[in-house]
Design brief:
Layout (H helix, E strand, L loop, with lengths): L2 H39 L3 H61 L2 H33 L5 H15 L4 H6 L11 H15 L1
Helix pairs in contact: 1-2, 2-3, 3-6
Amino acid sequence: MSGLEMALFNLKFTAKQLNRQAAKAGKDETAEKNKLKKAIQQNHGDIAKIYAQNAIRKQNERLNLLRLASRIDAVSSRVQTAVTMRQVTASMANVVKGMDKAMAAMDLEKISAVMDKFETQFEDLDVATGYYENATSSATAVGTPQEDVDRLMNQVADEAGVELHQEMAAATPAATKVGPTEQEEEGLGERLRALRS
């Protein structure tokens, strides 16, 4: 395993650990909220305040861990691209050596075979690069449909008995591009199938 592949493994492992820690912090947050609710019901204001602080701290811890895991995942995607590029570069170097030998002999069949192989590998490189660019942009720019966000916020507000409509009117949704369009996805899929056959 080369240095880049080892770094890729370590990055993926670290991201997985961070996601596990974030899940644990989420469970701890829920437990603190339950304790808070119980303390409020029993009219223990000071204890409730402590549980509320703990719940907020656990929530912030979970968010920070998820942000860090997302960043590490984005770096992991870029390292994966570098590993793939290095493999394709090595293959292209072998093709160039074959081209040199074919040109020396000027055997048209060999030249044609080598050029076909070079074109195939170049197309493979295009497909791999496109895939990893999409993966990287998806990993670094997480987009959630605004309707889903609004629906969830309204649901939680209804459960809590809070009115959010006034605050929501001031907020404007951000436009984000989630990933490739369906046509782009189909085109990439067709190119990948064509390359494999």
